[in-house]
Amino acid sequence: MSHDRNAGLPLTTDWFDRIQINRPAAERRAASLLARRSVKKEHQAAWLVNAIRCMDLTTLAGDDTENRVARLCAKARRPIADHIAEGLGLTEMPKTGAVCVYPTMVGAAKRALSNSGIPVASVATGFPAGLMPLDLRLAEIRYAVDQGADEIDIVITRAHVFDGNWQALYDEIATMREACGDAHMKAILATGDLVTLSNVYKASMVAMQAGADFIKTSTGKEGVNATIPVSLTMVRALRDYGDRTGVKIGFKPAGGMKTGKDALSWQILMKEELGRDWLEPDLFRFGASSMLGDIERQLEHYVTGRYAASHRHAIA
Predict the structure, then answer these.
(1) Is the distance from CB of 152 to CB of 183 less than 8 angstroms?
(2) Alpha-carbon distance 193 to 205, whole Å?
(3) Is residue 227 part of a domain?
(4) Which residue among 30, 40, 49, 50 is least enclosed by CB atoms within 10 Å?
């Protein structure tokens, strides 16, 4: 990262304990953001290329193998076909922001990405539910780091949020942050499970106070994953944290994003709410797997004027 990491600070509940988020107002603001912006032609192509740079290309399936991970890493190195890159006038092939895998696949990903400069992210802490004893969750973090993970995506205990037990949530996340060592930590809040936007804001603030480098919406396994109103709530929280501390926190929406249009929507949110800095991979990532295929298809249409059949593009 090009900025200082988040060292965290002592739990300060008066930053958020009286916060109440008005869901209809958040939904109206989210809808107006997207309605007021229309990105077309070469500008759309540029935003789609930027989305590739900010993508954590992900495989988190029960049937993952080292060969599948190697293929995903090859796609991360060359995410679009050569003729598309040439048609766009790119001087070099873009690369994804990271590759995200399970801890047991970190070694395979590191080997496949050697000398590429692409970080390896690993989920940990009993992903996706997080319902494991804390010592086992910490051991999983340390295992992933020992395997070479550059970034760790942890999951929180949702019950602490429901109970309003902010000290327990803070202590858990701070302990996980310590276990990560030099690896950057993304705190997954599983917002689809948290019921209210007020809970989302408060959990976001506790995670940042506990030292999270990124806050992340979802595991991708909940019934409801990333949405614009939830993302708006989280980026407002990290903006408030930045205003108080001067520290820049990253944001990662994950789950349910499948199209180039989705990539544009979240980038518009980041630009409007936080500014240009949050369109860079050190502060913004998409947790996505299938979205890259549609982005490549849209870019080919821009270059050639025709939509290719989906089988022409490698499955991300």
Answers:
(1) yes
(2) 17
(3) yes
(4) 40
Taking alpha carbons only, the member of 188, 194, 192, 262 closest to residue 223 is: 192
**Element spanning 37, H or E:** none
Q: Specify if 5 maps to a domain.
A: no
Domain of 175?
A: 25-312
Instruction: Give the total number of structural domains in the chain.
Output: 1
286 in a structural domain: yes
Confirm whether 1 is domain-assigned: no
Check pLDDT > 80 for residue 83.
Answer: yes
Residue 299 burial (C-beta neighbours within 10 Å; 0-12, 13-18, 19+): buried
Residue 196, number of CB atoms within 10 A of its CB: 14
Does the pLDDT value for residue 316 go beyond 60? no
- Helix/strand/coil (H/E/C) assignment for every residue in 183-216: CEEEEECCHHHCCCHHHHHHHHHHHHHCCCCEEE
* Catalytic residue annotation: 153, 216, 252
Helix (H/G/I), strand (E/B), else coil: 67: helix
The Cβ of residue 244 has, within 10 Å, a number of other Cβ atoms equal to 14
Q: Tell me the C-alpha distance between 78 and 138, whole Å.
A: 34
Task: Name the helix (H) or strand (E) containing 120.
Answer: strand 120-123
State yes or no: pLDDT of 275 exceeds 90. yes
CA pair distance 192, 66, nearest whole angstrom: 31
How far apart are alpha carbons 316 and 312 in whole angstroms?
12
73-83 burial code (b ≥16 CB/10 A, e <16): bebbbebbbee
- The stretch 258-265 carries a mean pLDDT of 95
Indicate which CATH number applies to the domain containing 244.
Answer: 3.20.20.70
Q: Are 239 and 271 in contact (CB under 8 A)?
A: no
**Taking residues 130-143, what's their average pLDDT?**
97
Give the pairing of strands 120-123 and 98-101. parallel
